[in-house]
Amino acid sequence: MSLMFEPLRKFAVFEGRARRSEYWLFALFQILLIVGFFIFAGIVYAASGGSTSEHWEGPGAMLVGGVGLLLCLFAIALIIPGLAVSVRRLHDSDKSGWLLLLSFIPFGGFVILIFTLMDGTPGPNRYGPDPKDRAGPAGGGPVVHNHYYGGEPPKPAASIVE
Asked: I need a labelling partner for 46 at 20 to 30 A (CA). Which of 74, 98, 127, 152 fits?
């Protein structure tokens, strides 16, 4: 449960790495918040004597508008932690946070979705240590774009024909 609110604790931290569970639990938190606001707005409107007519008038409409305004304020407040956890999630799979700009082109959001579903790079990468504390590659050095650097390169497997 604490991972759900971890992006709020790291409000504007764009450095480091975030596990899949941190990213997706924060997304679940945002969805539950939105659904809760809509349910609350419906209850408030119905309890204040809202009608089913096409005209939204009276105190019910004002209360629903207030709930909608509150929802907008929460959405604005969650933009920065949402961007930060998205960047850290991309860092976990050794991708640049600038890839989030793909969301502005058609089908770019699908690419970002795939990247957020991928497992992170085992061991440390250029964005920091592995949040799952897994061992790095067999060669001992950190991984950058699935290439080894630092230390000695890994030994090739023995071939059958020499």
From this structure: 74
pLDDT in tens, 53-90: 555 566 667 777 788 888 899 999 999 999 999 999 99
Asked if 22 and 93 touch (Cβ cutoff 8 Å), the reply is no
Q: Pull the structure tokens for residue 87.
A: 């960047």
Residue given tokens 């058609």 in the structure block? 106
- pTM for this model (two decimals): 0.73
Please state, in angstroms and rounded to a whole number, the distance separating the CA atoms of residues 71 and 39.
12
User: Residue 147 pairs with which residues in a beta bridge?
Assistant: 144
Based on its alpha-carbon atoms, the radius of gyration of the chain, rounded to whole angstroms, reads: 23
User: At 81, which helix (H) or strand (E)?
Assistant: helix 79-92
Per residue in 8-25, pLDDT (tens digit) is 888 888 999 999 999 999
End-to-end CA distance of the chain, in Å?
55
Three-state DSSP state, 128? strand
CA distances from 32 to 45, 73, 79, 133, 162 (A): 20, 16, 16, 30, 61
14 contacts: CB under 8 Å, gap ≥ 6:
83, 84, 87, 88, 97
